[in-house]
């Protein structure tokens, strides 16, 4: 059994973890971890982040909020588990596989022609002047580019390089179309391209290399 470390920062994998060496050597696909309301939980956490990002509490309200968030964190400390078995990242029925660290996306197409998804940057993904932070745009490209390359090589890949060109501002709170595809597959090397559109307007594009991992490669 995994127990929460006192620090609460990270839970190492157990000997009986499904992780077999390598980076997600076996990609779990689940729809039940965390229960039927886990998606609502993720959405409330995102809402918390949105509200916290733009909040200006009085000192008294800050004191009150610290107590409430500490109580919530204590509750979460009690249910920590390693990365391979957490719902976040494996719940394929939820936006961005239930991973709250990713900009939420919903996939409409995924196969040899690449991946098409609707991505919505949240208010907390703010860069400035109501536009998305460029780093969050790169995170979305990394995940969906990684998915396009994984589908092409039928295995797990890691990002070797990732270049994002920002062509126009990326709006928050707006469903955007992201498309990623493998332009050229050369052995273990998947050269990936991608685009992010707001309607007809190109917000950003991607040029990346993903490398298929060898068995057991970390
Ligand atoms: C089954 C289907 C499931 C589908 C459903 C799954 C969905 C699942 C979605 C998850 C999506 C998550 C996607 C997040 C992906 C990250 O975010 S990964 C995290 C960020 N990346 C890293 O930390 C990588 C750090 N770097 C490394 O680990 C290693 O350098 C690498 C990239 C694995 C490559 O090392 P290596 O395996 O030893 O390969 P190496 O022999 O050095 O190079 C292989 C070839 O690539 C070339 N190369 C390597 N690096 C470079 C570079 N930077 N520039 C140019 N060429 C390069 C080499 O020159 C060599 O070329 P050739 O000589 O063969 O022509």
TrEMBL record:
Compartments reported by the entry: Cell projection, Ruffle membrane; Cytoplasm; Membrane
A biological process term (GO) from this entry: fatty acid metabolic process
Reaction(s) catalysed (UniProt annotation): (9Z)-octadecenoyl-CoA + H2O = (9Z)-octadecenoate + CoA + H(+); octanoyl-CoA + H2O = octanoate + CoA + H(+); hexadecanoyl-CoA + H2O = hexadecanoate + CoA + H(+); decanoyl-CoA + H2O = decanoate + CoA + H(+)
CC annotations in GO: cytoplasm; membrane
Enzyme class: hydrolase
Molecular function as annotated in GO: hydrolase activity
Compositional bias per record (Basic and acidic residues), positions renumbered to this chain: 16-35
Keyword vocabulary terms for this entry: Apoptosis, Cell membrane, Cell projection, Cytoplasm, Fatty acid metabolism, Hydrolase, Lipid metabolism, Membrane, Transit peptide
SUPFAM superfamilies in the record: Thioesterase/thiol ester dehydrase-isomerase
E.C. numbers: 3.1.2.2
Family per similarity comment: Belongs to the THEM4/THEM5 thioesterase family.
Protein name as annotated: Acyl-coenzyme A thioesterase THEM4
Organism, as annotated: Gordonia oryzae
